Amino acid sequence: MAALVRLYASVPCKQARYRPPVLTPPVTIRYPTVREFFVNDQTTRRTGLPRVCLMSDAAESQPGVLYVVATPIGNLEDITLRALRVLREVDLIAAEHVPVARTLLRRYEIETPVLSYHDRGPDARRIVGRIEQGQSVALVSDAGTPGVSDPGRNLVAAAVDAGIDIVPIPGAAASVALWSVSGAESPRVMLHGFLPRKTNERRRAIERLAALGQPSIVFESPRRLRDTLQDIADTVPDAQLVVGRELTKLHEQIWRGTPAEAIEEFTEPRGEFTIIFTPPAQGAQPWTDDDVAEALAEAASQGASRSQAARFVAQQSGRPRRDIYALWPFSQER
């Protein structure tokens, strides 16, 4: 035993030194709430560690966030994982109609409190007050994205005025869904939303859309669908329509044709309708012989030869060059 003690004593001090553990104050590690989620996102990407957050009392007292959450337009499976997480973790859900929102929440076993939100009245100010006190709120409409032909614009505007953070949670949209299968040649489209209810105002709106010369997306209820189709037929009979009925639902229908054909097709409209309205192409008027001769004379007056003028006018008019030569207004080469 004495030999072992002597052996241990002969070990250099720097190797045998005892190092007591460093004691640190206890901390609480937990998974983040929605408001905290983005705080550690950059650290997570850098370290690969799970998203955890250490929050101080000062951080807990900061204002909440308004989330504008898109919900399915028919099929309840058309909701993103991110939207479900947000709906679970916020303090409150502001819904266009509470029973409609509860159908979605029950499907995914979400128990977040829900209150009714109306764009008119004091609801927006009341919800902003809760966010300023630190609560995070998710805004949802019956279908699609709040504020896009749905209630929500006033609440978003009030949040902007109050300096509150607003986060969009994108998702299903009837306009984008129909546009993706329309086969339209134009790379541009105008999202107009619902047309006016009064006939004169609706026809003026259709005329303005037609004057744009590009496809426009409008929404319509079954009660007014035939009136709208008749107004389009009377205003722009050569327009091409793509009509989506009950998109993503059991009785989904996508129909293509002219306004007159649509009137015959939808004799008893049912469901919600989305329409892509494409006015006829405004092609250039064909050049007459007089137009060609005038253009040739103008080119010649500026010093162009017969061949130069004919080539230029052929490019502008689209007519064959041999026809252009035959219409040369002078008796000889100039």
Could you characterize the architecture of this molecule?
- The chain is an alpha/beta fold and 334 residues long.
- It folds into 3 domains: 63-172, Cobalt-precorrin-4 Transmethylase, domain 1 (3-Layer(aba) Sandwich); 175-278, Tetrapyrrole methylase, C-terminal domain (Methyltransferase, Cobalt-precorrin-4 Transmethylase, Domain 2); 289-326, no CATH class.
- Helix content is 40%, strand content 14%.
- It contains 16 helices and 10 strands.
- It has a 5-stranded parallel beta sheet with strand order 3-2-4-1-5, with helices on both faces. It has a 5-stranded mixed beta sheet with strand order 6-7-10-8-9, with helices on both faces.
- Strand 6 (190-194), helix 11 (199-212) and strand 7 form a beta-alpha-beta unit.
- Helix 8 (123-132) packs across helix 9 (153-161), helix 11 packs across helix 12 (225-235) and helix 12 runs antiparallel to helix 13 (259-265).
- The longest helix has 14 residues, at 199-212.
- The N and C termini lie far apart (127 Å).
- 27% of the residues are buried.
- Residues 1-16, 20-31 and 34-61 have low confidence and may be disordered.
